[in-house]
Amino acid sequence: AGAAGGGQLVPVGTGAGDSAGECETGGAAFQLSVTDMKTTLELRVSREGMGEPPSFQPLPDLAYDRRILSVKVIQQPRAARDKYSSSVSSSQGLNQTMIIKYVCFRDGVSTILLTLHILAHKSIDIAWKKQCLEPKSKVGRALTAPQAVLIVLLSASMLACGACVLFFCCASSRCSPSESSPWSGGGDGRRQKRRGYDEVEMTSNGRGPRPDPIGSEWRDDERQEIIFHGAA
What we know:
Blueprint: E1 2-3, E2 10-12, E3 31-32, E4 38-44, E5 61-63, E6 69-75, H1 89-92, E7 95-104, E8 108-116, E9 124-132, H2 145-175, E10 192-195, E11 198-201
Parallel strand pairs: 3-9
Antiparallel strand pairs: 1-4, 2-9, 4-7, 5-8, 6-7, 8-9, 10-11
């Protein structure tokens, strides 16, 4: 068995032999770093003395420290063929691939033991270690009670200031005479302005007394006399 990305996994216990001889019993000598989140195992089966390929049944078992990480096999070995073919592709059918994924929960090192079950053969145990770091959680800033009260007070103050400014602007626009008002002083010559049915006659220089409006809104006793103010 080999591991992708360098290194070698040491089988533990009794298993199938390789070209160098029988597997030796030992501990987990290979350790994955923090950045390694997947492991690819390539299983190569020898054709010597075998009439048909081995069948990986039942599914492999995984043993690890569940407090540190979670391990899951995301790709199982392919189904074995009934018989070996004499073509070149038959050698490719002897290679099986497994992909194992890790999810770390906290800091620590966990020993992972993978048990491969082979139909009509002894099981194979493969052990290695995985180093983990606790993932950093993204925590947003919580709004405290004093901050919430301060935001409410600032909002209320801004609303009050806006209301006061609006009130003073409206009051000043009502009291001060505008240029288009018929009661504004000064002017060049005689000016007249119609508003509905009322007619207003202005003075020529604006220094005389205010003119009296003529219209339907006056009372009957006020319509008896029309006053024209000439230039002084």
